Input
Amino acid sequence: MNKEPLTQQELQRMAGKPVYCPEMELYGIVKYEIIGKWAGVPFLVGAWHHEGVAVNFEYNILERKLKCYKINDD
Output
C-alpha cells in the first residue's frame, strides 16, 4: 500500500480500481461519475459483511473526509 493517501485527481484516475480505507478498515472500489449531479465526486463503493449478512455502501470520500490508499500491484 502507498504511504500517502490519494488526492482527488488521483482518485479520478482510480475509477473502477480497488483502494484501502483505514478509517473504515475496509477495501472498496472507487466510483467517479463524469455527468449528472455527482459528476466529479469520488465515492468509495463496497459491501460490509457481518454474520452472514452483506450490506452495500457508497460513501462520498470528500464529504466524509476519508483517506484512500492505492494498493500496490506487487
Observations:
- The longest strand covers residues 42-50.
- The two ends are 10 Å apart (CA to CA).
- Residues 8-13 form the longest helix (6 residues).
- The beta strands are 18-21, 26-32, 42-50, 53-60, 69-70.
